[in-house]
Amino acid sequence: MKRELFPIDRIVIGDRLREIVPSAVALLEASIKTEGLIHPIVLRRLPDGTARLVVGRHRLEAHKRLKLDTIAVEWMPLTGDEIEDDITEKIMEVDENLYRAELGQAGVDLHVGKRVLLTNERVLTRDLRKNAEKKDELREALEAAPTPVEKKKIATAVENLSRNDRRLVETAKAFGYERHAEQDGTLSIRRVNDLQVIKPPVSPHTPKTPHRIPSTVIDEVQKETGMERIMINKSNMRFGKLGPDVLAMAERIDFGGGSKAGTQAELVALCRLKDEYLKEFEGVIRTWRNRIDTGKGRVDRPSTVLAGIIMKQKDDEKASKMGSPVVALEEMLSRLSKIKNDTIEVQKYPNSIRKHVNLKTMPEEFRRIVEKIASIETLSRAILKDLKTKEKEAHARAD
Q1: Residue 233 phi/psi, 5° resolution?
Q2: Which of 179-193, 251-265, 334-348 has the lowest mean pLDDT?
Q3: Which terminus of the chain is less hemmed in, N or C, by CB atoms within 10 Å?
Q4: What is the pTM of this model?
Q5: C-beta neighbour count of 238 within 10 angstroms
Q6: Is residue 151 a contact partner of residue 142, using CB atoms and an 8 Å limit?
Q7: Contact 95, 76 (CB under 8 A)
């Protein structure tokens, strides 16, 4: 990309993924003052003569604080397809943050998740454009086809491409790519005309199949970012489960003492809360949002909340078992059975117990012990049977 100077007052700043970090701007300011700008920012040309910032928000802010009029820039290459260029612009910002910014795990998950979605959208965009170009070529060939057989063959190819377009658009809608498919079901991507997307009726008994990111998209992200595939998959999973808003909050929340909400351990606990304990998950997020909005109030730590839930469940389970006479009797019978078996087994080793018992009277004493245990077992089983019968009757009356 060619480097040149551009007026700072003609640079437009759109929505950004990250907020300005004052300490980072201060460091850049000092560096630019002494050494100049080493890496130029990247801009995208706009039709009105201005330019939109793509990469380099902190460098631009440092120039503004130094009261400089111009800044070294490079221009983002354009394809001529507005939708694809918009996607590329966002991808460049995501990649810049992944390479340069000091992100916590929540920030990495947020950026990787967005990177995967943007790459998937770019793949869909290119596929739709290729289909449109192929259909234009086929329509021209259809007019010049010499025989009815040739015309039918070309018409079938056009219909197959249209069918593929419908599938791509439905996929785009499922992922929320609104620029590719309007809510009323009409295909809206440019240069693909006269195609209505017909939604088949969905049976209330048929569960919806979740749309998954194709492995080819993950491969493309891996190739372009250099990240390990397993890291991309884990970050993308948390991004899909928690969503960008929660991850953005997690990146900002600090528990004190250098402990942050955006660590991997806290995010794993947060995912489990959302999966298994939605009410507690919503409570944690409320405390985070309140802290960000007001600057005060407590912030709940997901790992602590999850540990508290698990401990309470164990205590409740223990109390439930202790309070049930049926469970108590079953445990007692299990212990009695073990004692009886041990009493029978120990008689096989007389030399080991000669110090503790009279070997002459041992068989008779042990026999009486086993008989007493057996009689207690018989009585306990009778009581247990009676208790279970009464419990069944009580449940039947309750129903």
Answers
A1: -65, -45
A2: 179-193
A3: C
A4: 0.68
A5: 25
A6: yes
A7: no
Q: Which H, E and C letters describe the chain, residue by residue?
A: CCEEEEEHHHEECCCCCCCCCHHHHHHHHHHHHHHCCCCCEEEEECCCCCEEEEECHHHHHHHHHCCCCEEEEEECCCCCCHHHHHHHHHHHHHHHHHHHCCCCHHHHHHHHHHHHHHHHHHHHHHHHHHHHHHHHHHHHHHHHCCCHHHHHHHHHHHHHHHHHHHHHHHHHHHCCCCCCECCCCEECCCCCCCCECCCCCCCCCCCCCCCCCCHHHHHHHHHHHCCCHHHHHHHHHHHHHHCHHHHHHHHHCEEECCEECCCHHHHHHHHHHHHHCHHHHHHHHHHHHHHHHHCCCCCCCHHHHHHHHHHHHHHHHHHHHHCCHHHHHHHHHHHHHHHHHHHHHHCCCHHHHCCCCCCCCHHHHHHHHHHHHHHHHHHHHHHHHHHHHHHHHHHHHHC
Cβ(282)–Cβ(274) below 8 Å: no
How remote is the C-alpha of 111 from its chain's centroid?
Answer: 12
Tens digit of each residue's pLDDT (9 = 90 or more) over 31-48? 999 999 999 999 999 999
- Output the CA angle 74-79-80, nearest 5 degrees: 115
| Token couple for 303 | 């790992």
Tens digits of residue pLDDT in 47-92 = 999 999 999 999 999 999 999 999 999 999 998 888 899 999 999 9
Q: Which CATH architecture has domain 3-77?
A: Alpha-Beta Complex (3.90)
Q: What is the largest CA-CA distance in the chain?
A: 115
